[in-house]
Fold this protein.
Amino acid sequence: MIKTHLNDFQSISLNDMDNVKLMNRVDTKFVFNENKLAELLSSLKKHYDILDINNQRVHSYKSLYYDTIDHKFFHHHHNGRVNRNKVRFREYVGSGLSFLEIKTKNNKGKTNKNRIKVESITDVLSASDKEYIDSVIGKELELESKQWVCFDRFTLVDKDAKERLTIDTNIVFNNTTQNGSFENIVIAELKQGRLNNASKFKRLAKNMYISPSNLSKYCLSTISLKPDIKQNIFKEKLLLLNKLKQQ
């Protein structure tokens, strides 16, 4: 069913997306049950193209997240710190490309992503990996691998505005001892050069009662895999997630 809807979109190539790389951007996340996805896509196809790589419109991603021993990055997000970081390896499975990525969010709500290409994902950082991370973050940190988060994604590009929309499904996660999933949950992320509330997706989402929600796959999977970690600030988001699962 979803594949049929995706085939209705006009395609765009990776090279055509150069003007919407948006490595420095404003991100807005939305979460909803997958039972709304078909209706949403039916409305979006008039306004957005879909990324097609080697005749594939749905692409698999594997991410290995790093944090300090005491989960400093997680706690910064939990505590609402405006300047915070996220460190991960990410493999773009279909293309065979892997990157070490560092996302930095500043006090103006902007997200900046820095990355370098790597040969493969490793669960121990090399000296050059550490040097790169420290240079981007601006201080030395002792980081260790925490968990994998894997999902399928398709990417939509606004036909007129400088805007990308990624839609993630089939989200699963695991560490060395446990695993879990966000069953029936879709996480959409709108990426804009600057905040634009006139976005066609935002208008359609509002009409379908899909509201913005600052959900982090890393933070939510951390809570699921480590239920004893401090999480009271995320209580409302967890209640929303559980409600959506049951729709």
